[in-house]
Amino acid sequence: MFLLNASSAGNILSILQIAALIAAFLFFLLKVVSGYLLIDMSVEVTPKRVKCDDKEDYLVIGLKLEKHQNCSVNIHDIAANITDSDGKKITTEKFKFEKVGCDSIRRFFGLGKIEWEKENKSGYITLAPREVTHLVCNIKEKIKSDEIYKVEVAVLGKGWFRPAISRWYCSVASLPNSEDQSQLKQLKNDIGSLKKEIVNLKVEQQTELKNDICSLKTELQNDIGSLKTEFKNDIGSLKTEIVGLKTKQTNAKEPTPKSNN
Q1: Mean pLDDT of the chain
Q2: Residue 123: which region, alpha, beta or left (left: phi > 0; alpha: psi -120 to 50)?
Q3: For residue 93, how many other CB atoms are within 10 A of its CB?
Q4: Whole-angstrom Cα distance, residue 57 to residue 53?
Q5: Among the listed ranges 12-26, 123-137, 180-194, which one has the minimum average pLDDT value?
Q6: What's the pLDDT score for residue 193?
Q7: Residue range 169-195: average pLDDT?
Q8: Given pLDDT bands bounded at 50, 70 and 90, which one contains residue 44?
Q9: CB 151 within 8 A of CB 45
Q10: CB atoms within 10 A of CB 112
Q11: Is the pLDDT higher at 115 or at 200?
Q12: DSSP string spanning the chain?
């Protein structure tokens, strides 16, 4: 009886151990599915255009890497790919951080010393949990000022004690400068306003000219009518004077009667 009870207790203990192992496995499986063991890092890309001339711009890409609470990560490689609105590839540039080296002796003994041109032998930069860093990449190829471009950035890194390499990807659109667009729009509006003002001035001038011509015609007609009336009156007066002169001449030619004394 005692042996039977001991055997039953051993079986129950084994069952409980197996159940605990299954529960632990399910717990870690749930963590894996929910992303707990993944490297959580956010990537933010900000393209910036700098005017070169009236037709072309320089393109500068800003990159923000923000590491969250799970695990540290070593960033191995970062590259940007630029394509135009038709999908044609313009260029591919890498974010260069391998030249940020330091004096390895002073690194462990005393004060460190940055040597910009010395190669970073590790080949990566490390981000600890809740750490943020900013990187910049200058695109060598000039881009058209009025064109829309697609900027893609890919990041490769590896977490501590993680066998696989993790990848991050982000794409944004680089639009023409809003200042240039606003200035162009303002210029177009100003040109449109000037055209309207010119048209209005032309209409006003034409209206005034027509009114002036009508006034001149009316004045000329009135003046011509007055001149005609005066001319008629003058002709009538002349006729009257001529008749009077003729009458006087006729009277002067007639002999005067002699008186009988």
Answers
A1: 78
A2: left
A3: 19
A4: 7
A5: 180-194
A6: 86
A7: 80
A8: very high
A9: yes
A10: 13
A11: 200
A12: -HHHHHHHHHHHHHHHHHHHHHHHHHHHHHHHHHTTTS--EEEEEEEEEEE-SSSEEEEEEEEEEEE-SS--EEEEEEEEEEEETTS-EEEEEEPP-TT-EE-HHHHHSSS--EETTS--TT-SEEE-TT-EEEEEEEEEEEEETT--EEEEEEEEEEETT--SPEEEEEEEEEPPPHHHHHHHHHHHHHHHHHHHHHHHHHHHHHHHHHHHHHHHHHHHHHHHHHHHHHHHHHHHHHHHHHHHHHHHHHHHHSPPPPP--
The helix/strand/coil state of 165 is coil
pTM for the structure as a whole: 0.54
Tokens 């159940």 identify what position? Answer: 19
- For residue 186, the model assigns a pLDDT of 76
Q: Which two tokens stand for residue 30?
A: 């749930």
Confirm if 125 and 109 have CB atoms less than 8 A apart.
Answer: no
Question: What is the reported pLDDT for 66?
Answer: 92
Question: In the numeric block, which tokens belong to residue 60?
Answer: 């500068």
Question: Which of 52, 48, 74 is CA-nearest to residue 62?
Answer: 48
